[in-house]
């Protein structure tokens, strides 16, 4: 039994009460601010306004029995908490953070934990205590950790054994860092023991009445080019936005059990594995997945009553490499994908083998989700859906004017004259960078795309990745999609490469599938080029191809196209003008 499950039992036997029931902040009692088309309360706190609301509903018998969080370890241990458990335990976590940890409202806390229940408690504890949480991946190196702690001036870090040694290595160079909290079965010199402190903490905590526009979280952008920036989100852009979505989307129900297979460092994890489901009263399922294993995922989907699954396209691609006929998913109804381009081939194969569709969603750290294919919408292969409610997403030209359907341009979300709820507050300490990303009335998402007559968006590629070859504009994702349909290609990245005649041409970096590693690369290059010519416009085929063992990626797993492109141009001695 997981130690937190034992603590949950103690809470029930001791009859702990929920101190801040009387401290709920109700929107009708607050002075509203106009924010887009919605009224924004002056104060909002997801922990008290949403989590404690559902705890009260459970207490009154108005929420069906069942967990709100269902966690399974790699060894099969389980933790199940309802909203009353989460309310009590997160109040304990808030007391740990504001008590022995010595943190005060507004302090920044780096949270570097894998998929363990404590991650969810720490995030809720930070929200209750008015602290600014900063999720990060356990895959960080000491250099990555140093950069984040220094630029953020983090006062505390909550981490596990995975990065504790690296943190100790760089901590002397981080003068703002005062507290280190360890989530582990072991003890470590210089670190506070989260497990012990949580057991000793009171479950009565007065929730901070945070302002709606007060800082709640900082996410470091993936840094596909340049150093990662600090994107700050408020209590309204995260928590209140989720509450609005719960009342308008209707894609989630109280009875749903949803599993989002992403790293805890990504904002999509916060949105899809905390904010959105819990705003609806649904259950989030979490599997520790110490190591990504498609067989484990398939077994979990077969065994547990998960009816909604979300994951990056690569998750589905890896699942499709298994013998799916050996598995049955009796409860699975809806599959979602985001974070990268979903290949039409992946969608077709998944549908053929499971009878289920994959619905795309699209967004970025700064905006949250901006487009999606909801449960009731028609699926168009190669398209990532329509604009979510309360957002105005358009394809615009270089002057910021809206382009008609079918014309390629930059994808942007309207932020003027009034910014909609859900858009981030800005880049911390970098207002110039924030302002530079606004064109006319729109925040640029950095992607090129097309909007069709039905309002569906097609992703063509990053704005600075579009290849202009002999006057033809080529989106890298189109070529990548074509290549990925060939069985020889396990992974690929397409960039521009200098050419003395055409200015620049398409170059593909290809990671081969294991069974093709022994093939003659010259012949395989020709075969792949012919394949691309057959499945898309012939002028888009990669005139250059390089076979590599892996592709450069950020610590959150995103391919660094800019690094590949810059290397191509640097080696040529030429400067790219686009």
Automatic annotation (TrEMBL):
InterPro entries: AMP-bd_C (IPR025110), AMP-bd_C_sf (IPR045851), AMP-binding_CS (IPR020845), AMP-dep_synth/lig_dom (IPR000873), ANL_N_sf (IPR042099), Mitochondrial_ACSM (IPR051087). SUPFAM superfamilies: Acetyl-CoA synthetase-like. The keyword Magnesium applies. It catalyses: a medium-chain fatty acid + ATP + CoA = a medium-chain fatty acyl-CoA + AMP + diphosphate. Keywords: ATP-binding, Fatty acid metabolism, Ligase, Lipid metabolism, Magnesium, Metal-binding, Mitochondrion, Nucleotide-binding, Transit peptide. It is found in: Mitochondrion. It is an enzyme of class 6 (ligase). Its EC number is 6.2.1.2. GO terms for molecular function: ATP binding; fatty-acyl-CoA synthase activity; medium-chain fatty acid-CoA ligase activity; metal ion binding. Residues 59-427 form the AMP-dependent synthetase/ligase domain. Residues 478-558 form the AMP-binding enzyme C-terminal domain. Coiled coil: none annotated. Its cofactor is Mn(2+); Mg(2+). One of its GO terms (biological process) is acyl-CoA metabolic process. GO terms for cellular component: mitochondrial matrix. Belongs to the ATP-dependent AMP-binding enzyme family. This is medium-chain acyl-CoA ligase. It comes from Trichechus manatus latirostris (Florida manatee). The gene is LOC101343241.
